[in-house]
Amino acid sequence: MKIHIVPEARPAASPDTESCFPVTGGEARIERSASAFSDEEWSEAFAGEAKDGRYHAIVQSTIRGDFAYRYLSVRDYRGRLRVLQPFFLTNQDLLVGVPAVVRSAAAAIRKLFPRFMMQLMLMAGCAAGEGHPGLLGDAAESAAMLFESLDEYGRRQGAKMVTLKDFPKLNRARLEAGAAAAGYKRIPSFPGTVIEVSDYVHFDDYLARAVGKATRKSMRRKFRAADALQPSLSFEVLIDPAPEAEALCALYQQVYERSEFRFEALTPDYFRELSRQMPDTARFFVWRVAGRPVAMSATLVLDGKIYDNYLGLDYAVAHERHLYYVTLRDIFNWAVQNGITTYYSTPLDYEPKLRMRFRLAPLDLYVKHLNRAINPIFGRVLPFLEPTRYDKTLPKFSNAADLV
């Protein structure tokens, strides 16, 4: 006797649905808005993640640039949600992580061929920070659905490549087999850094027990010099920075303009919406001189972890007041006092973090060229384009081997 399985009712397409297409074991839909999914679906797919559905909606509505934001859902034949994955399309420079001499040579070529080593790329994850896979049910099956769906939609849009952007190392067990089977190659991205702050009573305890003598003496000298300056530096933690969103964004912009590697660019609306929509997790650290903001850090706090996502500095006073180190000290002490166990900092600026004995928090890129003939060749070239290859500081970290 032949048994027929009757699918459960599937949700109707929303007004934001861009397209639907079949994949092995189910159906994929592409949505234009994070609101196409319920709070329960976001919570289930991104349980324990600070960058939840609200965060992705904020990024889409406030961060400008060459990003076409979309959301992938895959439901199996019973109508059960198996994949909920934010992604975006962007024109990506493949030479962003190579040495300056190579980029200079490429710049000369681009005067004649503007799109040399530029590709339309589908990037799964988040345009503002690390990404996470929204997989439900059996991880292997859901990962296979994810990769198949991204490939199909990428080809439909004329993308040349698909990348899973900056996925933390802990996701490797869920993604590795499916990525390899689908023809993706994993390479390291610029990693974040981390300190287990709960091991220490305060920042000076950290200096005494974890940091080398020369660095410890240098740091204490910097703090004495900074604390002696008048007018003195004040420090506060805000949930709602909206009245000062323009000023805080201007501080961030100073750091952004000095960065060698740029991707997303924040706007004042990012700060406003983060405080309005995520008051339970968003915290803004602000340092002032005579009432004027001179440094800021935009963070997310969840489940005993603090994610220090964006730093802003007034470079007119930053070096004299050693603001980079002062912000680290004050956030560290606030974290200890508020029961935080783990402090995560963003990628780059590795030299001072090495001296401060941070550990690396590896982030992975899963990359595939959608031309089936080119992809095997591209996989061999990819290690020479991966961003960490040319950084001389990363191999000095105690857990540098974790990157691969």
| CATH domain topology of the largest domain | Aminopeptidase
Q: What portion of the residues fall into strands of 2 or more residues? A: 25-35%
Rg, Å, rounded:
23 Å
Low-confidence stretches: 1-9
Shape-level CATH architecture of the largest domain: 3-Layer(aba) Sandwich
Helix content: 25-40%
Order of helices and strands: EEHHEEHEHEHEEHHEHHEEEHEHEEH
Order of adjacent strands in the largest pleated sheet: 1-2-3-4-5-6-15-7
Distance between the termini: 51 Å
Return the structural class: alpha+beta
Q: Total helix count?
A: 12
Q: What's the shape?
A: globular
Query: How many domains make up the coordinates?
Result: 2
Question: Average pLDDT value?
Answer: 91
Classified in CATH, the superfamily of the largest domain is Gcn5-related N-acetyltransferase (GNAT)
Attribute tags:
404 residues, alpha+beta, Aminopeptidase, 2 domains, eight-stranded mixed sheet, seven-stranded mixed sheet, 12 helices, 34% helix, disordered N terminus
